Input
Amino acid sequence: MSDEEQRRQQFAGWFNEQLRQRGWTQGKLVVQSGSGDEERLSSAAVSRYSTAKMIPDIISCQKMARAFGLPLDLILQKAGLIEPAAAETDWVQQVIDDLAHAVDAGQLSEEGRLSIIVQLRREQRLIELERAKPQTGRAKTSTGKISEGE
Output
């Protein structure tokens, strides 16, 4: 299987799972993707995405993002049109940068920006602590068997 075929298969699996989780038919997705025929995904395109015959282009990804209520960058990543973010810390830094731009544009006060950053850092630290916690309950013994914790 070529890289392109594999990419189409992976996207189709993800795409069909999104439909399944929502209880949507392909037709429901078409309707949800735009308010008029020219704004909507075509039925033929949706069928091709579902059967791994085609990967969506950027415009189709925008329509899917609108319909599914998901971030555009997630859809673009799933379609293989952009690379995933390198790490969670990159995401936090991006948010901090976006907040600075909001302050520059007069959309957010400096105090508001600092307050949000403090909360982000606190949440980030809590996540790091949670990940560092040892797993309780079940553990492997030196013989490789799993024992139940007390």
Remarks:
- The first helix runs from residue 3 to 22.
- The beta strands are 138-140, 146-148.
- Confidence is low (pLDDT under 50) at residues 138-142.
